[in-house]
Design brief:
heterotrimer; A alpha/beta (407); B mainly alpha (298); C mainly alpha (332); B: 298 residues; mainly alpha; MetI-like fold; 15 helices; flat; C: 332 residues; 72% helix
């Protein structure tokens, strides 16, 4: 991106490509024009793994960038090594920080997500490209099978799924990823880590219930976890009825169906809950930005940009253009967003879902990436029938906490 | 060996071409085998081209379609304009890649030819140790050396330059090994004859070995060019702006976090392959001429 | 005829003062010839390898931590994940290198004949290698996907389609189970997913092998073939007693490079399965990648890389010994 630098240059490393990158560049340009103290330079660094690689290289060469997109577990390790600074002193600064009204305007979960309990609740990761996991339904098929509404509890889900599987098989699809597991546990009211952020709790009753359901569905050949993004296309082509994915998938589904000229009644809901009456709860995920220790000036510039980026107008534009969720409630009240909701009423699900207080992210510990891989292997083994759910969970729990100790 | 060449030439004059019918049948069998194997091998490639004309929806449809329902040339336009790599995009990537690959390739050919000759035809102190030492550098996974390599680039202030994408790949162990193997097949009688004509190692290498190693050099040139053409992770790490980036970075844009745009990826992959295919055809013509000629040229 | 593998372990030069002077003169010249390569390789490869080794001795997570000595190595050698990954890597190497070389050898023999349309045929065989491995792997992933073209083919024949890249069970188990043969745990072989990746890799690397074989064959004097045919040698005898021995330096090159490549293979696995399903395609190089660039354990990853390096070096030296010896008997 050709940039004339005015003031301090602040580099931002990100993973956005395609139209998303175009939009991000536009927001950055607007910011650069709006003031003269800082110039933000966004740079695409490949996918999340590539970006993390670039960060490791830059850190070890002694020259990290100021702003970078990163996962929470990566930032936990950066912070332990004294590489990143907390956003608190900027966010809570009386002059340049967020006002009380601003804070009240943010969806509460986003102000919680950045806090790391093991580091005295320091706010280390500022939300950037967030989404939450939803359950997508083929409403026509559900109706055809004789159910008047999508399942509210996992028990209902099981009944519906197994019945529908007799006509559309497999009735349930997703990509086998630890985030699915997190959602199954969160939505049943469970958690994956102790409140002090020190012990992982993988083999809870909620997890056992979830894995038992998965094993049963696998045995009935009612569930499948194909590679990559196939589950999304399968859902679009009505090869499956229940499909779990990020709320950001919506724009892709809409675009694909439009291009193919295909219409059917589909909807997304918060994932089912454990028992009737429980509040819905889902997994919040996606990228955040962290602030590397560079220069006081660059760090201030970074904050100035994040404040601008998360402001109502920008966060609304970002959400509309990308399919991520907006960070502020007021963004959903802007004319553009209202119009969008009027045209696409189903989009309100993600927004309404964000208002539930229980939504949470996955454990923010350095070991989590490794544990995610262990969990993914377990999901695949259970689905292939080569592992017993209860026993597998106990093993994973032990492995995971060993990783915690050595990380 | 020299004598066997002479006798064979004599035989040929005396006997001529025997058994034309059997030859025809043999040629037919060869054609059949090559065609079937070749088409099977090319199938994924053909599939890629066909997919590049489908809609995203059709590209992932079940059951899969062979031919696109509609030939969407638009995919090529979309891919070429590459949303997000604003404002440069593929034209710039192409220029960068040709430049980087061209210089890397020439440099690597030169150093590999000289070093390969040295290992193949010269007896000197420490030869085996150095050769194994060089070969050993091929055996360390790139994951382990990526961070140290980056530190070197930063130390030299080569970040975000062409230099960082060229210089590290000019010294090529792979190239040295390949040239060593090719040059070592040249008969030692040639060297003895060259010495009688008053040539030293440098002259022998320049005037006799280089023209005779043409198949090897072409092969190496092709592979070095290909490696450079297909580099992704290294350029991504050592560059920051689209002005400096090569073609594979452009290709990587299509594999996004939220979903792979299969059809556009295939379109982009197709048009990035064409230049290398042309290069391959050019080198192949040289090979085929080499076969048509008698084996020992020069 | 110099067969190179043998020249690696040459007999000592006869010592006489004239010879010795010449030997040292040649040595000086040789180093002058090697200088550009050595400087470049030392700066950009040897130095980083030494640096990586240094990293492997520390508790280096993101940044340098406590000095550990060889503790990382000890931990790895005792780890089940490493042993599993090593077995996976060995299977992968076994399933790719030899099939791809054998196929390419015979393909190259056919492709070195003066027949019509040679350019066209050669292009067909080489096309896989031209494609970037990332794009090629992406194509193969769609071919192998559940409900993809292979699954459709299986269904069309009337056989239930296997799960391809999603199948963690061993290939021998899958083949023998229908016959009622039950295999012990250690004999199930690589997972079907791994076999699928191997198929893709054979497809990919035969393009490379064919080109190198062809270049080698181009160097063989055509007159030798004519002479052999006139002496009444059969097609097979020509291949066995002429082409094969004369191609030995080329074959040896391909073998060494392919074994090294197969032990370091990364791109296609990363794209097609990323180590899954259930970890059955996690090779050592994938483990190195995960430890370094997903978990941030740079020290541990470097130690892993050096253990892998040791194994590859050992294998390469064995190849030099074995092939070197047989080469000597042929040239002898």
């Amino acid at each position: 991106m050709p940039i004339t630098v005015r003031g301090t240059k602040v580099t931002l490393w990100h993973t956005q490509s395609g139209p998303n990158a175009q939009l991000l560049n536009k927001i950055v340009l607007d910011f650069n024009k709006s003031q003269s103290s800082y110039t933000i330079a966004p740079e695409y660094k490949g996918n999340y793994n590539d970006l993390y690689q670039a960060n490791l290289a830059a850190i070890n060469a002694g020259q990290p960038v100021t702003l970078s997109v990163a996962y929470e577990n990566q930032v936990a390790a950066f912070y332990s090594s004294g590489l990143v600074v907390a956003w608190d002193e900027y966010m809570n600064n009386s002059q340049i920080g967020l006002s009380a009204a601003d804070k009240a305007d943010f969806f509460p979960a986003f102000l919680e997500l950045g806090k790391f309990p093991q580091f005295g609740n320091k706010f280390l990761t500022f939300p950037f490209a967030k989404s939450l996991e939803l359950m997508w339904y083929d409403a026509d098929m559900v109706k055809q099978a004789g159910f008047d509404k999508p399942p509210a509890t996992w028990g209902d889900f099981k009944t519906q799924m197994l019945k529908i599987n007799k006509t559309v098989s497999p009735a349930w699809e997703f990509s086998a990823d630890a985030s699915r597991f997190a959602t199954w546990v969160f939505s049943r009211g469970g958690d994956l880590i102790s409140p002090d952020g020190k012990t992982l709790t993988i083999d809870t009753p909620e997890a056992e219930e979830a894995m038992a359901l998965l094993a049963e569905a696998a045995k009935a050949k009612a569930v499948r976890a194909p590679q990559g993004y196939q589950s999304e296309t399968d859902f679009e082509q009505q090869k499956t009825v229940f499909y779990q994915d990020s709320s950001a998938a919506r724009s892709y589904i809409l675009a694909d169906l439009k291009k193919a000229g295909k219409t059917f009644n589909w909807t997304a809901e918060m994932p089912p809950v454990g028992k009737t009456g429980q509040t819905p709860r889902s997994d919040l995920y996606g990228g955040n930005v962290c602030l590397f220790k560079t220069s006081a000036d660059a760090q201030r510039g970074a904050w100035a940009f994040m404040k601008y980026f998360s402001d109502t107008k920008q966060t609304a534009a970002w959400a509309l253009g990308t399919g991520y969720v907006p960070l502020r409630k007021s963004a959903t009240e802007t004319p553009a967003y209202r119009q969008f909701l009027a045209e696409n009423p189903r989009n309100s699900v993600a927004i309404d879902g964000l208002k539930y207080p229980g939504n949470t992210g996955e454990p923010k510990v350095a070991a989590w990436q490794q544990v995610r891989d262990i969990l993914q292997s377990m999901l695949q083994s259970v689905m292939a029938g080569t592992a017993q759910p209860k026993q597998a969970l106990a093993e994973v729990n032990q492995k995971a906490n060993n990783v915690m100790k050595t990380s | 060996m020299v004598s066997s060449i002479q006798t064979s030439a004599m035989h040929q004059v005396m006997v001529g071409h025997p058994r034309p019918l059997r030859r025809l049948r043999a040629a037919l069998v060869v054609h059949c085998i090559l065609l079937i194997c070749g088409l099977l091998i090319a199938f994924p490639f053909i599939w890629m081209i066909l997919t590049s004309f489908k809609t995203q929806f059709e590209a992932l449809a079940y059951p899969p379609t062979l031919l696109p329902e509609q030939w969407r040339w638009q995919n090529y336009v979309d891919a070429w304009q590459l949303p997000g790599s604003w404002p440069k995009g593929f034209p710039r990537y192409f220029v960068n890649t040709v430049f980087i690959a061209g210089i890397t390739c020439s440099g690597a050919l030169l150093t590999s030819l000289v070093a390969g000759y040295t290992f193949a035809k010269m007896e000197f102190f420490g030869k085996n140790v150095i050769f194994i030492g060089l070969l050993a550098t091929l055996m360390v996974p790139f994951e382990a050396t990526l961070v140290p390599d980056f530190i070197i680039i930063k130390t030299f202030h080569w970040y975000n330059t062409y230099t960082a994408q060229i210089i590290p790949w000019i010294g090529s162990v792979f190239g040295i090994f390949l040239m060593r193997q090719f040059i070592s097949t040249l008969p030692n009688e040639l060297w003895e004859a060259a010495q009688i004509d008053g040539l030293g190692h440098a002259g022998y290498l320049r005037w006799i070995v280089t023209p005779l190693s043409l198949p090897g050099l072409l092969t190496l040139g092709l592979f070095t060019f290909l490696d450079s053409w297909n580099a992704l992770i290294w350029p991504l790490i050592v560059t920051s702006s689209d002005e400096m980036r090569p073609i594979q970075v452009g290709l990587a844009y299509f594999i996004t976090e939220e979903g792979t745009q299969v059809n556009q990826l295939m379109a982009a992959a197709t048009f990035t392959i064409i230049p290398v295919l042309v290069l391959f055809l050019i080198t192949q013509r040289q090979f085929i001429e080499g076969i048509a000629q008698s084996g020992l040229k020069g | 005829m110099a067969l190179t593998a043998s020249s690696l372990f040459p007999s000592r030069p006869v010592v006489s003062s004239v010879r010795r002077r010449k030997y040292w003169r040649t040595t000086v010249l040789a180093y002058a010839f090697l200088l550009p390569s050595i400087i470049l390789i030392a700066t950009f490869h040897l130095f980083s390898i030494a640096f990586a080794f240094y990293i492997s001795l520390f508790n280096w997570k993101v940044i340098k931590g406590a000095f550990l000595g060889f503790t990382n190595y000890q931990v790895i050698l005792g780890s089940g994940d490493f042993r599993a990954a090593l077995a996976t890597t060995a299977w992968y190497s076994l399933f790719t290198v030899i099939p791809s070389m054998a196929f390419a050898f015979f393909a190259a023999i056919l492709l070195s004949r003066p027949i019509k349309g040679l350019s066209f045929y050669r292009t067909l065989f080489f096309v896989p290698y031209v494609t970037s491995s990332v794009a090629a792997a992406a194509v193969w992933r769609t071919l192998f996907r559940t409900d993809g073209i292979f699954s459709s083919l299986w269904k069309w024949i009337g056989v239930p389609s296997p799960q391809w890249l999603n199948e963690p069970r061993g290939i021998f188990l899958l083949l023998l189970q229908p016959l009622g043969i039950h295999l012990p745990h250690w004999a199930v072989g690589p997972s079907l997913a791994m076999v699928c990746i191997a198929i893709m890799s054979i497809w990919y690397s035969q393009g490379f092998d064919v080109v190198v074989f062809l270049a080698g064959m181009t160097s063989i004097p055509k007159e030798l073939y004519e002479a052999a045919r006139l002496d009444g040698a059969s097609e097979w005898q020509v291949i066995r007693f002429l082409t094969w021995p004369l191609l030995l330096p080329t074959t040896f090159f391909i073998l060494v490079i392919s074994v090294i490549g197969s032990f370091k293979a990364f791109n296609q696995i990363y794209i097609m399965t990323n180590g899954g399903p259930a970890g059955t395609t996690t090779t050592v190089s994938l483990l190195v990648y995960n430890e370094a660039f997903r978990y941030g354990h740079l020290g541990y990853a470097s130690a892993l890389a050096f253990l892998l390096f040791g194994i590859i070096l050992g294998l390469t030296l064995v190849q030099f010994r074995v092939v070197g010896r047989s080469a000597r008997t042929i040239s002898g």
